[in-house]
Amino acid sequence: MDTTKIASTNGTTAATTGRPSPLAGVGTWADERLGLATAMKKQIRKVFPDHWSFMLGEIALWSFVVLLLSGVFLTLWFTPSMAEIQYEGSYDQLRGIHMSEAYASTLNISFDVRGGLLMRQMHHWAAMLFIAAMLVHLMRVFLTGAFRKPRELNWVIGGVLILLGIVEGFAGYSLPDDLLSGTGLRIADGLVKATPVVGTYMSFFMFGGEFPGELIIPRLYIAHVLLIPGLILALIAAHMLLLVYHKHTQWPGPGRTEQNVVGYPLLPVYAAKAGGFFFIVFGVCATMGGLLAINPVWKYGPYDPSKVTAGSQPDWYMGIAEGLLRIMPGWETHIFGVTISWNVFLPGQIAPVALLMMVLAWPFLEAWVTGDKREHHLLQRPRNAPTRTAFLAAMITAYGLLWAAGGNDILALKFNLNLNYITYFMRVAIFVVPVLVFFLARRWCISLQRHDNEVLLHGYETGIIMRSPEGGYSERHLPISTERAYSLTARDRDVVVPDPQPTDGQGVRDKGYPVRKLRARLSQGMFANNVQKPTTSELEEAHHHAEHEHELEHASGMDRPADGHQFDGHADHTPDEAPLRGH
Prior knowledge:
GO terms for molecular function: metal ion binding; oxidoreductase activity; quinol-cytochrome-c reductase activity. Keywords: Cell membrane, Electron transport, Heme, Iron, Membrane, Metal-binding, Respiratory chain, Translocase, Transmembrane, Transmembrane helix, Transport. Residues 26-252 form the Cytochrome b/b6 N-terminal region profile domain. It is built from 18 helices and 10 strands. It has helices spanning 22-34, 36-43, 55-75, 101-111, 116-144, 152-174, 179-193, 199-207, 216-246, 266-291, 319-327, 342-370, 386-405, 408-414, 419-458, 482-489, 513-527, 536-556; strands at 5-6, 17-18, 47-48, 84-86, 98-100, 264-265, 332-335, 338-341, 460-467, 473-478. The strands form 5 sheets. A two-stranded antiparallel sheet has the order 1-2. The protein has a two-stranded antiparallel ribbon with strand order 3-6.
């Protein structure tokens, strides 16, 4: 077969043959054996919608890439060993001190390796950004209902990614073997030992003997650089594949339906934007790593089990466990010679997992309560799901309180308050404040729904005050644009499940009555107070009423152009040219 390249032209000269491109030949060879062109032809033209909130997931993705790049650099000089040596490095204050090789290599990276401190701090800031972006991305998905069918599995994957990210972060900042990270490991040892019956065995297995042992740093190193990153990479790949398979969600608007996606193709538009966004994230991490100090391990000194860092605080994403541990009463149970430390076991193991399970189970709970089996590709405005939005607001409030409770000693010191009073206040506030926030946020959303209906039915407020011949004043309303009206009405009406009958038609008690009653009560609690969008007849009646009012105003001479600036010195046009204020 002739593999020469035929050049065509519209000119008068004859076409000549050219030499085939080597790159094209390699591409043809690979495609004939792997079918890459056929597989990628459709995917590279796949359309993705464009909205700023969709970038939150990209921040998490690119910060993870920064973590991988900076982590590879750090592994070249870090020594994951707890063997004791005498430090002879360039940091004068610690020279001659006995410490582990892990701590000494961390000091070496910070002071003796060119660019080492920059990479250490970039790595730490990228870890902070990675977990923060995942959490904010999770909240965006939750608030907009992007977790609904068919994306429940992707929601669970996202929750597991956050859990793995937290464990990965804890393992990472424990590696330097300084006094602060050693304090965190001591707390982790206490959490493990609080496990009923098998806690001490688990601790001995983890640390290779009595705490701190000599194996925990090498084991954490393997988990930090190999095991957990591998799991995160696999879950990110699964997350992205499901995203492509299910297609991306989009905000409702003209031309956007449950069956299509309006946006830009992957190549070249979206790929170029994503590539530029990576460099922005990389630049932000580099700027923070170069200008903002984080985890200055040389100030803490090497770990000594007989000491503890005064005012020690974990990274912010450990705030739930830290706060719960500090405000939990000292409850213990002694049974059959075994002590169950509820004051550590409940806040350290049960409560954080229970909170995570509540969030991950929400899509399945909501689908069961609503009975909705349809696929959803259009997003919801947070105000149109008041109970869901209020639940997230309550969860954020609980996290904020626990974060503050985790720093009760710092609060007492800085504000000259009684430490015990702060603890007692937090014990009450954690049960009261989130409930108050839940009801406040829910009523707020319902009020916004009512406002949307008023805008749909009566138009937007122009700010123009009109005076009638009788002396009364009223504000001029004008209808909203078609695009905005579409976005306000592009939502389903909530279906409230009625109370079931305890018996069937023959008077026999229904065995499933308790479950169906629970579903009805949950449905009524979640949707009964919601303000539903106006019906077609209500919209037509409102428009007819507006036209009637306009006719009356015209007849009474009130209908004349005015923009509200005729008497304030800002009018530079005639009344006939005065435009109404935009909306």
